[in-house]
Amino acid sequence: MKAKTAEDRQLLELIEPIAESLGLDIVRVRLMGGTQRRRLQIMAERPADHDIAVEECARLSRAVSEVFDAADPISGEYLLEVSSPGVDRPLTRQSDFDLFEGYEARLETDRMIEGRKRFKGVVAGTDGDNIAIDLDGEADTALIPFDWLVDAKLVLTDELMKAGAEKRAARNDNSSETED
């Protein structure tokens, strides 16, 4: 789910080694827009703490631009956007469902499961190749094959906002300690 289309997957193959060389993981790559000016969105983070600094986004942007100027993988004009996944981040790797266990998420599958493709509930980790989710209004934990997901994203809740604020505060404390 890091890349949705065949074109996204080809771009991901070029971008991932660049990010890894900078000590970053790619969360998602999306080329959006029609035939006119398109936008290439790259979400990245440090694997250790699932965060990224503005300077790291700028370094990744410059490195990707350098490679893309030579390889020219996108026809026509495009805008390159490198960012953090944000607090209400997409869940694109199976490990994300263990990392964000206990938070509310929305999921969409590529096929019908009990008459629907969209689900909302609390992430309950993983079980083998399945993601586990406690669906709203259901007693049992649902297991959905990770490979069936086409989209998954955390829902912006007060609990998630609080966790994001605590993470920012910890980051600010660490950066002020290193400045002293």
Verbal overview:
With 180 residues, this protein is an alpha+beta fold. It folds into 2 domains: 6-83, 2-Layer Sandwich (GMP Synthetase, Chain A, domain 3); 94-158, SH3 type barrels, CATH 2.30.30. It contains 4 helices and 8 strands; from the N terminus they run αββαβαβββββα. The strands form 2 sheets. Strands 7-6-5-4-8 form a 5-stranded antiparallel β-sheet. The protein has a 3-stranded mixed β-sheet with strand order 1-2-3. InterPro entries: Ribosome_maturation_RimP, RimP_C, RimP_C_sf, RimP_N, RimP_N_sf. Residues 14-88 form the Ribosome maturation factor RimP N-terminal domain. Keywords: Cytoplasm, Ribosome biogenesis. It comes from Brevundimonas basaltis.
Per CATH, the architecture of the largest domain is 2-Layer Sandwich
Strand percentage, roughly?
Answer: 25-35%
Helix content: 25-40%
* Strand count: 8
Strand order within the widest sheet? 7-6-5-4-8
> Helical segment tally?
4
User: What does the average pLDDT come to?
Assistant: 92
CATH class of the largest domain: Alpha Beta
Q: CATH topology of the largest domain, what is it called?
A: GMP Synthetase, Chain A, domain 3
Oligomer: single chain
Look at the structure and name the CATH superfamily of the largest domain: RimP-like superfamily, N-terminal
Shape descriptor reads globular
Main beta sheet: 5 strands, antiparallel
Whole-Å distance between the termini?
41 Å
Secondary-structure-based class equals alpha+beta
User: Number of domains in the coordinates?
Assistant: 2
Radius of gyration: 18 Å
- Topology pattern, helix = H, strand = E: HEEHEHEEEEEH
Function: Required for maturation of 30S ribosomal subunits.
Protein name: Ribosome maturation factor RimP
Keywords: Cytoplasm, Ribosome biogenesis
Domain Ribosome maturation factor RimP N-terminal: 14-88
